[in-house]
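Why Bifunctional ligase/repressor BirA? Reviewers of the renewal asked for a concrete example.
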Amino acid sequence: IGNKIIYFDTIDSTNNYSKRIAKDAAHGTVIISEEQSGGRGRLGRNWISPKGEGIWMSIVLKPDIPPTEGMKMTQIAAAAVCNAIRGVTGLEAFIKWPNDLVVNGKKVCGILTEMAGELTRIDYLIVGIGINANNESFLEEFQHIATSLAKEKGEKVDRKTLILHLLKEFEGLYEDYINQGTLEKTLAIIRNYSAVLGKSILVIRGEQQLKATVLGIDEEGLLEVKYEDGKRELLMSGEVSIRGE
Ligand code: BTN
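Here is what the prediction returned.
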């Protein structure tokens, strides 16, 4: 992973570019851009990606796993970013299941995993990672929910060091998953540094918002929750969005 790195000064979106080249790209190709003019977030949102401030990157993967397992790449990426941020900056990053990272309660990273293929086979997976590394200011509407590593640490972060650390972590956890067939190491990180375990959350499904308590994260990486009426459920990443209370 990361044997080939394609670097841009500016691009629409590293995920979009990855899609355009994915068919011919080698497994593990990494795309990085200083700036994205059309950065995308989950749920069709925009992802603000100013020049030189963040880490805007995508990893193209071609694993031989069924599409139902594809979202595990999000968990692997979240665990890898969490360890990398902690290792490089010393900041206490936590994982807000399934695909956000927070520092001091505010978002510093989002992950957007996209997949192409058939019912039984993955053609390729694109793991898009956006890290607010050195951003100095945020739009007013995001100020209370988003922050950057530099803001929290009080000094700039060396992006290259963070990227290399992150790719190494990702590769280790990815290989472990492919070889073992389980998410063991990834889950240990996700549980250890979870921002939601034991907490009360709001589960957002379409128009509905339901209060729930997080009981655990199961072997598949699914979130075990208990609603106010006592009903329990296992949530899959992608089908819900959660909000801290
Ligand atoms: C989210 O939290 O909604 C996910 C944000 C993902 C942003 C990254 S930045 C690199 C890659 N390219 C994109 O257009 N999006 C992802």
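The helical segments are 14-21, 72-89, 149-153, 159-180, 184-192. This is the kind of structural detail the renewal will allow us to pursue systematically.
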